[in-house]
Amino acid sequence: MSIMVSTPSVGEMSRAVDALKRSQYDGGPLHLHPGDLGWHSLNGVEATAAAIRMWSRDGEVLAVGLLDGPELVRMAVAPQWRDDEALAHRLAADLDDPARGVLPPDGATVEARGAKLLTQLLVKRSWEPAEVWTTFHRGLSDPVEDCGLRIETIEPDRAQVWVAVHWSAFRGSPFTDADRRSRVGRWLAMAGGPFYGDGRFLAAFDANDDAVAVAAVWSAGPGRPGLLEPMGVHRSHRGHGYGTAITLAAAATLRNMGSSSASVCVESSNIAAVATYASAGFTPSAQVADLHRGPR
After folding, report:
1. N- or C-end of the chain: fewer Cβ atoms within 10 A?
2. Is cis: bond before 230, omega within 30 of 0?
């Protein structure tokens, strides 16, 4: 039977999530994780479903893509199908040709870690290396050392604490009342969606009980690698080791959730983040680049 590509309805998203969970394994690439869908659901569950592409054959999901922006697709190919030539050629054609309706004509980027055959085919179609990333992993068979700070698992009634630190970490601009209402509203929408049960949202507090760092972690199920995404330190509290502390807390939380390991990915150019994850006992893997094509 031929390979079909589809966009799931909200009710059909569980097929994509289940396929992504099965694709996570220790020693494998840090490709698209079900936690990435969870984080994307800040945009709403309907928007997240609309951003998913599933490639299937005979009812089996072979690959999943998330349109994480108008020109970026993040991919996961099921491990047992990565060397399947028919699938790789179909994926390459769908990603390369704007007429297929996956990526736009003005330019596009593909993140396809671990999918070597697909990557080779895209290079043959004149796709070129783009942003370089470093993936980090930490095994969780042993207990994680105490981080030294008070850690709170944030529930919806405390969402404003989490979003304020996250805004400072990634925006650094004034956090207006309108910004706060918007961000808290999106956070609550995510909390009301189907992914929230697999996530935990952590905040670290200093000796003055100020929230200084936040992180989110996502389980792919017991015995599978969990994801740390995102992590950030408030701009007024940097330089005190709080990034390392919240990363240790994130790893400990994933261990308590039954994850076999913790994984995170960061731009290789982000020297501070690279140092933070290394100091929290995460081991880097080989760097990997996204692929980019210009206008078609």
Report:
1. N
2. yes
Q: Which helix (H) or strand (E) holds 73?
A: strand 72-77
Q: What is the pLDDT of residues 34-56, one digit of tens each?
A: 999 999 999 999 999 999 999 99
Bridge-partner residues for 292, per DSSP?
109, 128
Name the pTM for this structure.
0.97
Q: How far is CA 157 from the centre of its chain?
A: 24
**Torsion angle defined by CA atoms of residues 107, 113, 116 and 118, in that order, rounded to the nearest 10 degrees:** -40
pLDDT at res. 47: 98
Superfamily of structural domain 4-130:
Gcn5-related N-acetyltransferase (GNAT) (3.40.630.30)
C-alpha–C-alpha distance, residues 65 and 7, integer Å: 10
Task: Give the helix/strand (H/E) hosting 74.
Answer: strand 72-77
